[in-house]
Specification:
The chain is mostly helical and 124 residues long. The chain has 4 helices and 2 strands; from the N terminus they run αββααα. Helix 2 crosses helix 3.
Length: 124
């Protein structure tokens, strides 16, 4: 049986309607080698940048520099930076179901109560 007379049916299209070898079924599709946003972002965050650490200059990734800057702003009291840091799953992972929250010391409870009281006073 020759190629021209092969059976036609389910998942066996006629030879003359099949894609030619080396020809794409979607010629106006995504070009080969083009990168998506995630790949571009990963590459950019992995690239190195020079920062001054005291007296010396260090070469660190841009991702590490972003984290250092965010922590630095948080320590200076920036509420937006603190919200980003404390709300991230890396710093404060969600408690697994069924596990109790850790117990606070007396000093920590007093600090927390004072903070909550000051928040309530600001709302009033």
């Amino acid at each position: 049986m020759s190629d021209d007379h092969s059976p036609v049916g389910y998942r066996r299209p006629p030879r003359h309607t099949q894609f030619r070898k080396g020809t794409s079924g979607n010629p106006s599709g995504r070009p080969k080698g083009s990168k998506n946003l995630r790949t571009l972002l990963d590459a950019e965050l992995a690239s190195k940048v020079r920062i001054r650490d005291g007296e010396r200059v260090r070469l660190i990734s841009k991702a590490e520099a972003l984290v250092k800057g965010l922590v630095s702003r948080g320590l200076k009291g920036d509420p937006h930076a603190n919200r980003l840091l404390l709300g991230s799953s890396v710093v404060a992972p969600a408690d697994p179901v069924g596990e109790a929250a850790p117990h606070l010391s007396v000093d920590d409870e007093a600090i927390l109560e004072g903070y909550l009281r000051s928040r309530q006073e600001k709302k009033s």
